[in-house]
Amino acid sequence: MTDDLFQMSETFEDSLSEMKGRMPSDAGLLKMADMFKILSDPTRVRILYALSLSQLCVQDISELAQVSQSAVSHQLRILRNSGLVNWKKSGKQVFYSLDSDAVRTLIEKASEHSLT
To answer: 33, 92 in Cβ contact below 8 A?
Structure first.
């Protein structure tokens, strides 16, 4: 066996160098890992999926996600703190929505990937 098999071509070394430059920082990777931790809870995913359909109040989210209103409120606090969910008050009711189209796309892509 020759060492030639294990030598990287200059083209690949250049490509690898470019890829290294595109890798996120350790802090960025940590934030991504935290996002995946948040998404690892089925109740939170149910809530996010429901919110991908429409903005909703806690009672409606509770009905769609099939969990208690107190559980929904607890999970919404985590989702708000992580920047995945926004809220707005209308009269006495509070309505929740996804923070951005990027979050909606994330839920849609995860759904496509896991439910097909």
So the answer is: no
